């Protein structure tokens, strides 16, 4: 999922630089940076498409601002709207003046906050400002909390099909839509399945961000 944030960042910078008629070498650097990071294994095409839509919508919303500083200010405001970032996340990300860490803080931090809201309170870790700015370790905590809750629930049901219960309960708690669930259900390895469900959750979250941006006033 981190590749998605990097792709989004690259698109934002390329479009902004193009709009401001900056040097093409700067744009090439941004594109190159957008190709680094975590590679999605199961929804790569969908991630590339939705992050490109978000970048294009951000440009459409903000390109009339003219100068690069004005566009970046607009991008920051629209990112908050797109990812429905709560007030505590906005406060945590605000000190990040560089666009690179700000995009990660808003997009992946908001994803973590959304995932946290779906976990049972007894297994839900507190989210600190540092968790917004460096969301990867916190996302790992959330995965552990989710897994603990799901396993405990399925064991309490005293069913012989504990594995099947876990595979049903995990996407249910994360509110994964059926078409994405079906793609993950085809995977026999439990580790691959869990990774697929995680990617599906992130894809849905980015899709909602794209929808919010497309609903701008005209």
Please, could you describe this protein's structure?
This protein has 218 residues and is mainly α. The protein has 2 domains: 2-94 and 209-214, no CATH class; 121-204, no CATH class. It contains 11 helices and no strands. The chain has helices spanning 2-19, 24-34, 44-62, 68-82, 87-93, 99-117, 129-133, 135-156, 162-173, 178-185, 190-214. Helix 1 packs parallel to helix 3 (44-62), helix 5 packs antiparallel against helix 6 (99-117) and helix 10 (178-185) runs antiparallel to helix 11. The longest helix is centred in the C-terminal third of the chain and has 25 residues, at 190-214. The radius of gyration is 18 Å and the shape is globular.
List keywords for this structure.
218 residues; mainly alpha; 11 helices; 74% helix; globular
Main structural class: mainly alpha
* Rg measurement, Å: 18 Å
The overall strand count is 0
The biggest beta sheet reads: none
List unreliable stretches of 5+ residues. Answer: 14-38
Tell me the strand percentage band: under 5%
What is the overall silhouette? globular
Overall average pLDDT: 81
SSE sequence, one letter per element: HHHHHHHHHHH
* Quaternary structure type: single chain
Helix content: over 70%
Query: What is the number of helical segments per DSSP (H or I, 4+ residues)?
Result: 11
| Integer tally of domains | 2
User: N- to C-terminal separation?
Assistant: 31 Å
Write a short abstract of this structure.
This protein is mainly alpha-helical.
Would you spell out the secondary-structure blueprint of this structure?
Blueprint: H1 2-19, H2 24-34, H3 44-62, H4 68-82, H5 87-93, H6 99-117, H7 129-133, H8 135-156, H9 162-173, H10 178-185, H11 190-214
């Amino acid at each position: 999922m981190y590749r998605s944030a990097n792709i989004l960042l690259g698109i934002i910078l390329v479009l902004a630089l193009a709009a401001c008629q900056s040097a093409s070498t700067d744009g090439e650097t941004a594109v190159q940076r957008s190709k680094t990071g975590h590679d999605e294994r199961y929804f790569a095409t969908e991630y590339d498409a939705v992050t490109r839509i978000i970048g294009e919508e951000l440009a459409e919303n903000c390109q009339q601002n003219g100068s690069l500083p004005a566009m970046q200010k607009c991008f920051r405001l629209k990112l908050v709207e797109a990812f429905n970032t709560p007030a505590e996340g906005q406060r945590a990300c605000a000190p990040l003046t560089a666009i690179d860490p700000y995009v990660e803080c808003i997009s992946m931090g908001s994803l973590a906050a959304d995932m946290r809201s779906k976990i049972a309170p007894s297994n839900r870790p507190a989210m600190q400002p540092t968790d917004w700015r460096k969301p990867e370790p916190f996302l790992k905590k959330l995965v552990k909390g989710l897994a603990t809750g799901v396993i405990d629930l399925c064991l309490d049901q005293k069913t012989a099909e504990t594995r099947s219960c876990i595979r049903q309960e995990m996407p249910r708690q994360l509110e994964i839509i059926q078409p994405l669930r079906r793609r993950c259900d085809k995977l026999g390895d439990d580790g691959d399945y869990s990774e697929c469900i995680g990617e599906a959750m992130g894809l849905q979250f980015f899709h909602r961000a794209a929808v919010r941006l497309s609903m701008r006033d005209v």
